[in-house]
Structures are given as structure tokens and as C-alpha cells.
Amino acid sequence: MTKEIAIFGAGCFWGVEEAFRTLEGVLKTEVGYCGGHTENPAYKEVCTDTTGHAEVVQLEFEPEIISYKKLLEVFWSIHDPTTLNRQGPDYGSQYRSVIFTTTDEQKNIAENYKKELNESARFPRKIITQINTAPVFYSAEDYHQQYLQKKGLRQCH
Fold first, then answer.
1. Which of 20, 21, 81, 135 is 20 to 30 A removed from 30 (C-alpha atoms)?
2. Catalytic residue among 12, 34, 47, 156
3. Could you tell me the CATH number of the domain that includes residue 120?
4. Is 157 within the bounds of a domain?
């Protein structure tokens, strides 16, 4: 069994985690922070929009069961990837649309899929999702992990 890591930011990490948590082939989800300049950021710091971090979910998945492209399909279906630093009522760079890739293959698949979507005109505006090599992932505080599941909710908004 091969395992891979994928990291996605698509707004509030509670809802993003819930969208991926129950997919067949996803072994583990963990919410956290990625892409900023502050070491070991805390939620209150990230919410100030000064750390540079995005709220993200890190997935451990089995590519033999669920492909990275299928994960991208889910990612692009759960948020508006054409909106800069905003999802629903949440705004700030911590809510940006971002993919942090953990392999060169993921980077190629994500860039090609983004190009295909832009050319297809599926979205009314150009996709602004950032695609970057994964930097350090910082796990969010325990109370954020599986937050919606703990509260018996399916989504944030």
C-alpha cells in the first residue's frame, strides 16, 4: 500500500477537511497552516492575516484507491477558485485558494488540470488558485481537528 500526502487550502479549513475526510482512499486528515513566514503559528495569529499562512487540510491518501486528480476534482468543486483571498463570508489571505504539492507529479497534474479548467470556461472568471511546492505544515490546535464532525455539522456556511 502506497501512501501520499496532499495539502489543500480552500477557505475555512473546517469545511475543507469535512469535504475530504470521508472519501474512500483518504486515510487521515489534519487541519493546519502552511505557506507563511511565522514558525509554529497559532490560530489567533493566522487570523490577523499577518503570518502569511493559509488555513489548509493535509490528507494522507492511497493513490491506488483515490487518484490525486480525483482529489483535485473535489478541491475545485468545494470553493470558488476565482476569488482572491475570500470564500463565502471569510476573507483574508489565510482563506486563499492554494494547492501545496508534495511531489513533482502532483505539481504537473495540478497545473495541467488548472489549465484545462481555465480553457473549458467552467468558471466565469480565471482560476487564481496558487500551486506551490509544499513548505512546512504546522498542525492546528486540537480543537480544530475534525471540528465539524465533533459538532455534528457537515459544513461551515
1. 81
2. 12
3. 3.30.1060.10
4. no
The C-alpha cell that represents 34 in the structure block: 502552511
| 12 classed as catalytic | yes
Residue 67: inside a domain, yes or no?
A: yes
Flag whether 107 is in a domain. Answer: yes
Q: What is the pLDDT of residues 54-70, one digit of tens each?
A: 999 999 999 999 999 99
Contact (Cβ atoms closer than 8 angstroms) between residue 74 and residue 110: no
Cell of 56: 489548509
For residue 113, the tally of other CB atoms under 10 A from its CB is 20
Task: Please list, in sequence order, all residues whose beta carbon lies within 8 angstroms of the beta carbon of residue 54, skipping any fewer than 6 positions away.
Answer: 9, 33, 34, 35, 36, 93, 94, 95, 96, 98
Which single residue is written with the C-alpha cell 499562512? 53
Total domain count, the chain: 1
Please count the residues of the chain. Answer: 157
For residue 58, give every residue at least 6 positions away whose Cβ sits within 8 Å of its Cβ, in sequence order, or none. Answer: 5, 6, 7, 29, 30, 31, 32, 34, 137
pTM confidence score: 0.95
The amino acid present at 36, given as its one-letter code, is G
Q: Which domain holds residue 112?
A: 4-151
Q: What is the per-residue pLDDT across 15-36, written as a single tens digit (0 to 9) for each?
A: 999 999 999 999 999 999 999 9
* Domain contains 87: yes
